[in-house]
Specification:
The protein is mainly α and 106 residues long. Helix content is 73%, strand content 0%.
Length: 106
């Protein structure tokens, strides 16, 4: 198989293959044959899966809440800034209209 025709698996596909081995007890050799992968690649995926599995549990707790709160703070600041600009623009327009009237312009 040439490099150009090599199959690239998504993270979801890799997890599904690993799950079949770990939960359904499908032999590694059978999975490798079905998916056209080398056993060394399967074991590489498995090692990465176990080394990085803790990341599945981060981001759902305090970190995600802090990120959401920071995003909301940014939105609130930008909305306040926009309101202030609108107020300043309204004042300038009012002064402009008053000035035009005082100068007798239509």
């Amino acid at each position: 198989m040439s490099d150009n025709s090599r199959r690239h698996y998504t993270p979801e596909e890799k997890v599904a293959i690993l799950r079949r081995h770990l939960l359904e007890h499908v032999p590694v050799s059978q999975l490798c044959e079905q998916h056209g992968i080398a056993p060394s690649l399967f074991y590489h995926w498995q090692r990465e899966f176990f080394e990085n599995g803790h990341r599945a549990f981060t981001g759902n707790g305090k970190r995600a809440h802090r990120a959401e709160a920071a995003q909301q703070d940014k939105v609130d600041r930008l909305e306040a800034k926009l309101r202030k600009k609108d107020e300043v623009l309204a004042e300038l327009m009012e002064e402009h209209v008053t000035l035009k009237k005082s100068l007798g312009e239509p």
